[in-house]
Design goal:
This protein has helices at 35-42, 57-77, 88-100, 104-115, 124-136, 140-152, 159-170, 175-186, 195-207, 211-224, 230-242, 246-258, 266-278, 282-294, 301-313, 317-329, 336-348, 352-364, 371-383, 387-398, 406-418, 422-434, 441-453, 457-480; strands at residues 2-5, 8-11. It has a domain at 68-121. By secondary structure, the chain is an all-alpha fold. Mean pLDDT is 81; it is low at 1-19 and 23-68. Helix 18 runs antiparallel to helix 19 (371-383) and helix 21 runs antiparallel to helix 22 (422-434). It starts with a strand and ends with a helix. GO terms for molecular function: mRNA binding. This is Pentacotripeptide-repeat region of PRORP domain-containing protein. PPR repeats lie at residues 123-157, 194-228, 229-263, 265-299, 300-334, 335-369, 370-404, 405-439.
Length: 481
């Protein structure tokens, strides 16, 4: 595949206890059985339950490989209009896979292919999942068009579909459209907004600091007789916390405790720990950790990951280690998020040696790096000018099966762009598109800045034209549905 940018020919090649942990310093193999007895027992329904747990790993691996191959095949056929008799299981699993990974372009292409199948039947559940994905991807226009397509198929929207549409508008800051959608729900029989719909609406208002609208939503809920639940209160508390509105956050917690239908939980704890930790108020973070412990609310791995990040931002590396040691003693196994947090903290602080140590430890313990891990490493190396180590990371990635995404490519493109290696940057841009990672505004901004620095105006113009066409491509795919 070849792309011409300002005369350059760029090719893509495949290559817990109640105590605060920070206030002071064998596998058994299955029994062997005779082959004949095993075959005979498999034909009977009276085998013990424990035998159900003993599976043939080769058979499982074969099934997984067949399924993955089928999904890849569907992705390859999604752009074709000639495949109308595909295997339903592979097609539906491929759609679910694209939705879970929030790959909107692939998901919409596969959905268009799904609608062409002779066995296709429109379902509201499928539309609700697609709408939720488009909300997460901040694509409200596509969500609106998809909703119109659903209506054209004669489907009556359900509460879940409308709620997903509210989320799609709200997460993009289109609060007027989100409120209008809630009003539309009220006019549809058996489709009145429920507590989950209003909780989504409140979360979106809190995200964009429209706390004045939250009072309006709560008043409407009270008028309709809809009581707030844990999700509602946690949305309010989390919103106030992220806005550093600590007094209002405390008041919302008191309302939650006084409400007979809901009680604080680990999500409430994590909101308080995250709010005070991100604000650098470490003493209050530790105080609220103890308060929730006294309420009988136990921390989870997210709590500890949040505290590790907060201590890291404050440069309190010893307390980071204390939390990790406490996790080990209480049998909280560090996850990929834990190590990504530690690597990011040391990377941003310029502590490259400590970052590398935790990366090696992570791999030694069998924790598989993901695209976020590599993003943090690349950003740190780029920041200190170690472009040779960025090359090393690229070799790691090429020899792994890690699923690369748009943020990773943005990070690596930015690194090579800042280093002045425009040829490598262009090659990665082509590789990005080959891997179905669609460029976003960040991608184009990084490349345009790099080309501008070198005075390559023609390349800048080409990229700006590509940005315009990229914005209209999703709408074209939906119209093709």
């Amino acid at each position: 595949m070849v792309l011409s940018v300002s005369g350059m020919m760029l090719r893509w090649s495949s290559s817990i206890s109640s105590a605060t942990p920070f206030t002071s310093s064998t596998n058994r193999s299955p029994p062997k059985t005779r082959r004949g007895f095993r075959v005979e027992s498999l034909k009977r329904s009276s085998k013990p339950a424990s035998a159900e747990l003993v599976k043939d790993p080769n058979k499982d691996l074969s099934r997984i490989l067949r399924t993955e191959a089928a999904i890849r095949g569907v992705h390859n056929k999604a752009k074709s209009s000639s495949h109308k008799q595909l295997w339903p299981k592979a097609l539906l699993e491929s759609l679910d896979d694209a939705i879970k990974r929030c790959r909107s372009h692939s998901a919409l292409e596969i959905f268009a292919l799904l609608r062409k199948q002779y066995w296709y039947q429109p379902r509201c559940r499928t539309y609700a999942k697609l709408l939720m994905m488009l909300g997460k991807c901040r694509q409200p226009e596509e969500a609106s068009l998809l909703f119109e397509i659903m209506l054209s198929e004669g489907l009556k929207p359900t509460v879940d579909v409308y709620t997903a549409l509210v989320s799609a508008y709200g997460q993009s800051g289109l609060l007027d459209q989100a409120f209008s959608t809630v009003e539309d729900m009220k006019s549809v029989v058996d489709c009145e907004p429920d507590v989950y719909t209003y909780s989504i609406l409140i979360r979106c208002c809190a995200k964009f600091r429209r706390f004045d609208l939250i009072e309006h939503v709560l008043a409407e809920m009270s008028y309709l007789g809809i009581k707030c639940n844990c999700v509602t209160y946690n949305s309010i508390i989390d919103g106030y916390g992220k806005a550093s509105m600590f007094e209002q956050m405390d008041d919302a917690l008191n309302d939650m405790i006084e409400n007979g239908n809901s009680h604080p939980d680990v999500f409430t704890l994590n909101s308080f720990v995250g709010a005070y930790g991100n604000a650098g108020q470490i003493d209050k973070m530790e105080k609220w950790y103890d308060e929730f412990q006294l309420m009988g609310i136990k921390p989870d791995i997210t709590t500890f990951n949040t505290m590790i990040k907060s201590y890291g931002k404050a440069g309190m590396y010893e307390k980071m280690k204390t939390v990790m040691d406490f996790m080990e003693k209480r049998f909280f196994t560090p996850t990929i998020v834990t190590y990504n947090t530690v690597i990011e903290v040391f990377g941003k602080a310029g502590e490259i040696e400590k970052m590398d140590q935790h990366f090696l430890k992570m791999k030694h313990l069998g924790v598989k790096p993901n695209s976020i891990t590599y993003c943090s490493l690349v950003s740190a190396y780029s920041k200190v000018g170690c472009i040779d180590k960025v090359d090393s990371i690229m070799r790691h990635v090429e020899n792994s099966d890690v699923v690369l995404d748009t943020p990773f490519f943005n990070c690596i493109i930015s690194a090579y762009g800042q280093a002045g290696n425009l040829k490598k940057m262009g090659e990665l841009f082509l590789a990005m598109r080959e891997r179905k990672c669609e460029p976003d505004n960040i991608t184009f901004a990084c490349m345009i800045q790099s080309y501008n620095t070198q005075g390559m105006t023609e390349a800048v113009q080409n990229l700006e034209n590509m940005m315009i066409s990229a914005k209209s491509s999703l709408g074209t795919k939906l119209i093709g549905c």
